[in-house]
Amino acid sequence: MDEVVTDPGPVRERPPLALLGVGAGFASDAFRIESYADDSGIVRFARKARETVDGQPTWVGMRLAVVWRENDWKLRPVTGEQQVQIDSLRSIEGWTRW
Fold first, then answer.
1. What's the distance, CA 79 to chain centroid?
2. Residue 3 in 3-state DSSP?
């Protein structure tokens, strides 16, 4: 379910999550903010895959957690108990493209 925020409050004073980059080697084509609060968020990034399905493009999606620290959005480290969620996507319709 997409969350609609009508009053982001203090978030307006911060750079938007859309400005986040992900590490070298993963240049994303699109992003989607799953959820956010004043000091944290969950962002999904999608990159076009080499493979196609029925002649149509596919994407690899990566779900990452971020935190607001030192006046900037930072990736939250993954512990041994957590896993980075990676998905195969048939479409990025409704996502924000860079």
1. 19
2. coil
Residues of the chain with pLDDT under 50: 1-24
Q: Which two tokens stand for residue 4?
A: 């609609």
Instruction: Look at residues 25, 90, 86, 87 and name the one whose alpha carbon lies nearest to residue 52.
Output: 90
pTM of the model: 0.63
- Rounded to an integer, what is the distance from CA 6 to the centroid of its chain? 20
8 Å CB contact between 38 and 29: no
Query: What residues contact 18, with CB distance under 8 A and at least 6 apart?
Result: 31, 33, 96
Give residue for tokens 């203090």: 10
Q: What is each CA distance from 86 to 38, 51, 59, 61, 66, in whole angstroms?
A: 25, 16, 10, 5, 16
